[in-house]
Write the structure tokens for this entry.
Amino acid sequence: MAGRRQVHGVYRERQVGAAQALYGAMGVARSDAVGRKLAYVRNQAFFDAPHAVFIFMPEPFDTREATDIGMYAQTLMLAFIARGIASCAQGALGLFPDIVREQLGIPGHQKLLFGISFGYEDIDVKANAARVDRAPIDDVVRFQR
């Protein structure tokens, strides 16, 4: 998985917390290597959602344009929910860009950022009960007076 970076400090703590919430909701213990692998496979299979959007960014665009694309993706997800459609932004769907580009006929100069799975929510799916803690606003926003 080219380009994969390890995160540290509070970002690693948040990453682990999110994984614990998801795996905990699915009933997968940390020691359950097979269960964790199957959960990873479900992630790559859009968590069984019937549809997915892949979000690309053309080269040579970078952080500034990625910010615009992120705002677009959030707006898309809000439009989904306004119509009763659930969605899940998935960074993991960007881990294999060559395969996705090949399958969809996307040129190589398009960088795959992430995917969004969507469809009507199945409330019986345990993963949908996962709730991730949020950092206090004072930890993520700097207020100037």
